[in-house]
Specification:
Elements: E1 2-5, H1 9-26, E2 31-34, H2 41-52, E3 62-65, E4 67-69, H3 80-87, E5 99-100, H4 109-122, E6 128-131, E7 153-156, H5 159-169, E8 180-183, H6 186-190, E9 194-199, H7 205-212, E10 231-235
The structure holds 2-amino-2-deoxy-6-O-phosphono-alpha-D-glucopyranose (GLP).
């Protein structure tokens, strides 16, 4: 595992964009794994800028997002589908049918999760996965637990995650935050060829310190990234 430290959020976002752009240039039909949350907003803004400046072509790119809230319609202002449309997809030349986000509204969520895994496999697998990290060390919505499903699954959110996301995105209203989500599993994520994890701000110090301690524990799901051979932490 490699760690790169940046002087501020803007520099980290730019560096992450450079990695994504270089990957897409080297392989125009790149499959990207993508996160939501506040951390990747700067990265997505940089990618939109690069696209508008003619520096990158997303027409052959495919994307798979990590997670989605259960029960929020895709048009809901806090759904991760809407987030991705507003932050990135609506502003670049990606083919909408190449963008995949787990369904949080399917009648049979488990069946939809399995179908999502099949689509991911059929795509050839993720070339570059961009991750964020929760204050409790979660990646995707894989919350600290003694055990967890390996692949895309329905998951209950930790109290801490509900609180953090309520404050950041739901005007502090914990009741408004869905209590369950659909998330790729750690094994889904670990199958990516290359992983970069973005972390910004002091609230993540504890999670990053646990990863850097090199002790593997599902109490901090991010620590399992040590089992992958090509992971870079981008920290600011
Ligand atoms: C969210 C998402 C994660 C994200 C993390 C950190 O709840 N499910 O994929 O990486 O929490 O979010 P933020 O970037 O807002 O700190």
């Amino acid at each position: 595992m490699q760690k790169l430290t940046y002087k501020n959020y803007a520099a980290m976002s730019r560096a992450a964009a450079d990695i994504v752009v270089a990957t897409v240039k080297a392989k125009p039909n790149t499959v990207l794994g993508l996160p939501t949350g506040s951390t990747p907003i700067g990265l997505y803004a940089e990618l939109v800028k690069d696209y508008k400046a003619g520096k990158v072509d997303f027409s052959k790119v495919t994307t798979f997002n990590l997670d989605e809230y259960v029960g929020l319609d895709v048009k809901h202002e806090q759904s991760y589908r809407r987030f991705m449309q507003e932050q990135l997809f609506d502003h670049i030349n990606i083919n909408p049918s190449n963008t995949h986000i787990p369904s949080g509204t399917a009648k049979d969520l488990n069946k939809a999760a399995k179908e999502f895994e099949v689509k991911l496999k059929e795509s050839g697998g993720v070339d570059l996965f961009v991750l964020g990290i929760g204050t409790n060390g979660h990646i995707g919505f894989n919350e600290p637990a003694a055990g967890m499903p390996a692949y895309t699954h329905v998951v209950g959110l930790a109290e801490e995650t509900i609180k953090v996301n309520a404050d950041k995105f739901f005007g502090g209203d914990m009741e408004a935050v869905p209590k369950t989500a659909v998330s790729m599993g750690l094994a889904t994520i670990m199958q990516a060829k290359k992983i970069i994890l973005l972390s910004s701000g002091e609230s993540k110090n504890d999670a990053i310190a646990k990863i850097e301690s090199e002790i593997l524990t599902l109490d901090c799901p991010g620590t399992v990234l040590h089992m992958h051979r090509d992971v870079t932490l981008l920290v600011s």
